[in-house]
Amino acid sequence: MLKIFLIFCSVFLFTFVFFFGVNSSFAVDTLSPEIVVQKRAELEAELADIEKQIEAQNSIIKEKQRESTTLERDIAIFESKIEKSRLEIKARDLAIKKLGNSIKEKEGVIGTLSSKIDREKESLAELLRKTNEIDSTSLVEVILGYENMSDFFNDLDTFGFIEEAVQGSFNELRSDVTKTQVEKDELVATRTEQYELKSIQELQEKKNQGYKKEKEQILKVTKGEEKKYQEILKDKQKSAAEIKSALFVLRGSDAIPFEKALLYANNVFAKTGVRPAFLLGIITEESNLGANLGSGNWKDDLYNCYIKIGYKTSAEKQKNAFMEITSELRLNPDILPVSKAPYYGCGGAMGPAQFMPTTWSLYKDLIAKKTGHNPPSPWDPEDAFMASGLLLKDNGAAAGGYDAERRAALRYLAGGNWQKPAYAFYGDDVMEIAAKYQSQIDILGL
Questions:
Q1: Residue burial 151-168, b: 16+ Cβ < 10 Å; e: rest
Q2: Which of 150, 213, 304, 433 gives 20 to 30 Å between its CA and that of 440?
């Protein structure tokens, strides 16, 4: 009986190795591997071409900005910005499509591996049942079934090898499933990032369309006469009194007069070396982006959101930090505004500087030392300005100059991913806003 069973096991093992062990790769789609590789290469080539076009528009914008202010020049700048935004959105669409294909492939691999695991579980279970049958037979009966003892020991060794091989293959497949799932999760996270950028860039395009509409309206009023355009520009220039009294809009806090915002920014400059106009540009950009998401609450947009996407540890860390911050400030956490979770991710950023709770906790003591507010509040403009300045200093902004400041802005938004071309729009926006504020500061002479 044992000998017949061992022959069966040997046949099973041969079949298993031939069909599943020799070639660990398998089709996950109806398309051939060659076509899949070709399509991926086509997407990458198209994406590279679009990125070249984006850089070309950047060059046009920089070149035009060096020219004297004219009607034709300003319209050309905004048209280039609109085209750049359109290309950036198209690039994100291609990146999302590419990631979607990769995710689909990973899901196919996971499904196939899971099916193989199920089959191997059945095979392993059958071996275990046969092992139990052998164990229930007395050793004397088994030995008497053989003509000589050497055959008995040879078959016993073979059975042990088969059992070990199936168990080892099962464990290897289970490891492959885990690894593939991790790869899929990483791709999903990257795709989420791309959705976020696409959403922000769509808002950017709307803003640029508004600029173009404004310029076209001016063109209509001036009928293309440069002299009339220069007169309009002169009339639109604000006086020092108007600049001081203009409201500086903040995210998560009440607006304050520009004069006070500049006072806070100058104080940050004295203690961090971060240029006031640049800091105001960061705060404005954060407020503009945050305003488009509305106000959220910590339970739904921070904690529960992280739980839903499987980041329980991060959810607990952010919640604990948020509760500690609000408890120290003696504020009701349920009524404090945080950024609302968009469809592509989670919210929870606090106040004008849009700091996440855990990040605020890292800077809290240093903010208190600089402002004298203990504990400092993310929703207090003075504390928020200082927090932003400290982070920008850590990102290299205090070195000064266009490149250092733009790089610090990108790090403020994207951290270690700041070099990705997709984030370039943020740095460009901040530097443009900073230039506007610098011109106003120059008028004030402060």
A1: ebeebeeebeebbeebee
A2: 213
